[in-house]
# Entry
Amino acid sequence: METLRDKARELLAARTVQVIIGYGQGSGGGARAVFVREAAEADALIFNEACRQNLAVYLMKPEVRKLGKAALVATPSALRTILQLAAENQVGDHDLLALAVHAAGEVTLLATLQAIEAHVTELDADLSAAEKAELRKYEALSLEQRREYWQEQFSRCLKCYACRAACPLCYCSRCTVECNQPQWIPVPAHDLGNLEWNVMRAMHLAGRCVNCGDCSRACPVAIPLYLLNQKLISDVFANFNARSGMAAKTDNAMSIFKPDDSEDFIR
# Structure
């Protein structure tokens, strides 16, 4: 932890960056996001097992961008989010650098997108064994059972949009649910509106989600949104051999037209 603080002090003292986006002590032994702007404030930074939030969510906030160039204390999913945002032309080398913290407390400074790419290729981006096992169990369900499963899960949805607020790739300045001419998604938290909202958001993330899990952790009624996202991650990889958040320059697998596509419907 002290290595991280020393690096933060160094970067801020040299004015290499204007803010460190990292983790600080939260309530109940948890962690919260902190924005360190002076070298003397670096002691507020921590990094432990409670530091799970994908801090890349703050990179797209206008009020954070106004602070200047940022150094992001980055977990593996945050590093992949940075690359996905770069692939979508949302961030560049001039906007940030990353501080990758290792389990042993070591810190790797990744000053460019190219350096982040090289680092990410050394990490395992596949679903974990436990995630694959849960996904296989879900895929064994019939279509009717899947429908019933999600109807039951989505029936608890409050339409609070905590999942959207927590997601670093939900950065649209105006969401579909806020459009009322026409009204694409019903406002009330009823069965149809809940289904349309959650399916629409999942499809918006298809080929983009990096599986950080923040949407599920933010959900106040514990809807397993991660399972929906992991199903799409698995399908995109199986059908397009593509993983999101692996390169700063790449096309979205779900928005590419190729004349030699093997699917007949494309013609």
